[in-house]
Each structure stands twice: as structure tokens, then as C-alpha cells.
């Protein structure tokens, strides 16, 4: 039984039914439909905290999906899981892979910035000023890019950029 058939949540069930209908009517290949099913099951597992199962599904979807835009979201979600598990280097790797395929993913840029900011805070706590400044500067660079793509989002990042004097006057990165 696929994960989508096990969902107890009304919204998940509704999404699954709608997705199945869309899959049936859209002129897509068998591989694309199968990739979407793995992706959908990965999202469901991820939302339930079943990260190992989600990763299995995402990797299966990656093996089948050819569309770069769709692949970018799979890679992004893999990055989310690694970040949730504290594996920041792996998370950064997958966020960057996602951005290579889709440079207009502000959420990936934001998550990269969050990781660099976290590393900056940790370095600061250890009184490693040069490393801390470097990490904070990297975080600022990625947040500026994310804000450029989604100007109404990331309010906390915008405030941090302003309060730390890292906000560019013309909002360019």
C-alpha cells in the first residue's frame, strides 16, 4: 500500500485525490507519473517526521524525474531533511544543487542563509571573530538574494540585515 493510501489527514487525502486526478488527465509519461507519486509519498512521509522513508522516496523520484524545475524541488526537500537532522553540510549541498537547476528558489537561498547565520552564532560563542564575520557575511549575501526574489518575505532577515548594517541601500546583493 502506498503512503498516499494510508493518509488519515483530510487535507492530505484531498490533495492525494486531486493529484491522482491531475495525473490521469495530464499527458505525462509513465516515468513522470511514477516520479510524482514518489515525490508525493516523500512529502507525506516528511510531514510525518518519517525522514528515512521520505529520503527513499525522494531519491526514487530523482531517478525518474527529468524536468529540471521539478528536480529542483526534490533536491530542495532533500536539503530540508538533512538540515532538520543537523547535517548542515549535506543540506547546503542539496540546496545548491536545487539552485543550479532553479535559481529562483528564495526558500533555498533563505535556508542557506539560516545555516550560515547559525554557524556564525556558533563561531561567535567560541570567540572566533573572523569565522563569525565570514559566516554572517555569507548569510547576509544569501538573504539579500532571497529578499530580492521575494521582497515581502523574510522579515526577520530584513531586520537583521538592517540592525547589523548589512542592508544594501538599493536592495541589491
TrEMBL record:
SUPFAM superfamilies, A to Z: TPR-like
Domain of life where this protein originates: Eukaryota
Location within or outside the cell: Cellular thylakoid membrane; Plastid
SMART domains: TPR (SM00028)
Keywords (A to Z) from UniProt: Membrane, Photosynthesis, Plastid, Repeat, Thylakoid, TPR repeat
GO terms under biological process: photosynthesis
TPR repeat start and end residues: 35-68, 35-68, 72-105, 72-105, 120-153
Membrane keyword on record: yes
CC terms in the record's Gene Ontology section: plastid; thylakoid membrane
Pfam families, alphabetized: TPR_1 (PF00515)
UniProt family annotation: Belongs to the Ycf3 family.
Role, per record: Seems to be required for the assembly of the photosystem I complex.
Name listed for the protein in its UniProt record: Photosystem I assembly protein Ycf3
Amino acid at each position: 500500500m502506498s503512503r498516499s493510501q494510508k493518509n488519515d489527514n483530510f487535507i492530505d487525502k484531498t490533495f492525494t485525490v486531486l493529484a491522482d486526478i491531475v495525473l490521469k488527465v495530464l499527458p505525462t509519461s509513465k516515468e513522470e507519473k511514477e516520479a510524482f507519486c514518489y515525490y508525493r509519498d516523500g512529502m507525506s512521509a516528511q510531514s510525518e517526521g518519517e525522514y528515512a522513508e521520505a529520503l527513499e522516496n525522494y531519491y526514487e523520484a530523482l531517478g525518474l524525474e527529468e524536468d529540471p524545475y521539478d528536480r529542483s524541488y526534490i533536491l530542495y526537500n532533500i536539503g530540508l531533511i538533512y538540515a532538520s537532522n543537523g547535517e548542515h553540510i549535506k543540506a547546503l549541498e542539496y540546496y545548491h544543487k536545487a539552485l543550479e537547476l532553479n535559481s529562483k528558489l528564495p526558500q533555498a537561498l533563505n535556508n542557506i542563509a539560516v545555516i550560515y547565520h547559525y554557524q556564525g552564532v556558533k563561531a561567535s560563542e567560541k570567540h572566533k571573530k573572523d569565522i563569525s564575520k565570514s559566516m554572517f557575511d555569507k548569510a547576509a549575501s544569501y538573504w539579500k538574494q532571497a529578499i530580492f526574489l521575494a521582497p515581502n518575505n523574510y522579515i526577520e532577515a530584513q531586520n537583521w540585515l538592517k540592525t547589523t548594517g548589512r542592508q544594501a541601500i538599493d536592495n541589491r546583493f
